[in-house]
Every structure is written in C-alpha cells, then in structure tokens.
UniProtKB/TrEMBL annotation:
The keyword Hydrolase applies. Residues 11-188 form the Metallo-beta-lactamase domain. This is UPF0173 metal-dependent hydrolase Vdis_0828. Keywords: Hydrolase. InterPro entries: Metallo-B-lactamas, RibonucZ/Hydroxyglut_hydro, UPF0173, UPF0173_UPF0282_UlaG_hydrolase. One of its GO terms (molecular function) is hydrolase activity. Belongs to the UPF0173 family. Pfam families: Lactamase_B_2 (PF12706).
Amino acid sequence: MSTQSYIKWLGHAAFEIMLSGKKILIDPWISNPLSPVTLNEITSVDYILVTHDHFDHLGETVDIAKKTNATVVGVFELVNYLSEQGVKNTIGMNVGGSVKLTSEIEVYVTPALHSSSRGVPVGFIIKAPEATIYHAGDTGLFSEMDLLGRLFKIDVAMLPIGSLFTMDPRQAAYALTMLRPKAVIPMHYNTFPDIKQDPQQFKELAESMLPDVKVFILKPGEVLQLPIK
Ligand SMILES: [Zn+2]
C-alpha cells in the first residue's frame, strides 16, 4: 500500500477515490460545470462505480472505460447496456449484493430512493482497510439508512444535499442520525441554479444532529486524505 489513499471531489456526485493502491471513480460526469479535470486528464482508472443511468451520474463512463479498460460496477441492466456500448469489463450487481474487487476492497450495493431508466438506482458502500465509504447516490431520506449504520462502521458518507432531485440539507443532516458516520462530505449541490444550497447550513444542521461528525466541505478538486484522523 505505497500510494496515498484519498477521496477527491470532482464536482456534483463525481469522486476519485484511491484505496489500497486502486483508483476508483464514482459517477464520473467529468464534464460537469464544477469539474476540476478534463476527460483527457483521466488516463488510468481501475474501477468505475455508477449509481444510476441519469446523465449527471453515468457521465463519461463509456469513454473512460474504453480508454482505461476500467471495470464498471453497477446494476445488472445498466452494465448490460454498457457492454452493448463496447465496455469490456463489467460487474453487474443488484441491491444487497457484494463483490470483492481485490483481496482488500469490497463493494456493497445499497438501495436508493430515486428513479432510473435501466434497473434501479443504488448507492455503494466500499470497504477497505483504510476506510469504509458510503456514496448514497441520488436519494431521498429512507429509514433503512439506520440498518446501514448498524451493519457497517461508516467512516465517510457522501450525501446529496441539493434538494429538487434528492435530500435537502435538513434531510441529509437527519440521515446522519441513522448512518452515524465519522465524517460526511456534502455533494450534488450548486452544480446548477436549481440545486443551489449553502453547505455551511448543512454543516450546522449536521453538527446539531450528530455532534461528533466531521463535516468536510470540499472544493472541486480538493482531497480528503484517508484514513481520516
Ligand atoms: Zn443526479
């Protein structure tokens, strides 16, 4: 494990995560208005996790997978579609399932309360020695988050706070009482005027709901080192 482990926000719901020496992209909509990188700058990726097939999450998955040979992980119907688009390496899954990507990295598929055209929308829990990470995908508040909080010791949760399509700051803060993570990163806000939110307001609500939680308001391109201290 010579490489530094980290979570980097690429704007919207897109993250680059380095865990146990593997580079993982989640929901790589690299052309999003907040993105700190261009598609050309993305040259090596091991895995791409896609929560659902809306354009702002599927993003440039096909292009990136084709040029890097990354393995795409997602719901069965979605990855079948990606195979038809020429993506070579895929792992089709469904809610409740888990897969070991390597001897150190395990991915679980969680429910998400949202919509999609192919299969169902999901979230992911990624377990690795450095951290257990929960990316909620696009979702409303749902009570099974309490089960996720009991089953997994979540270190970092990425939660949408933009409202309109997902939870707003108040609901995302309430979600923390069920998920009980050590740290939270707000996402899916301020990409467009429609989902404008004040992340400071989320921070205050989050700290009132779960006093020990660390709120990391990342700027696009900013990195949170793992494990978190
Ligand atoms: Zn979205």
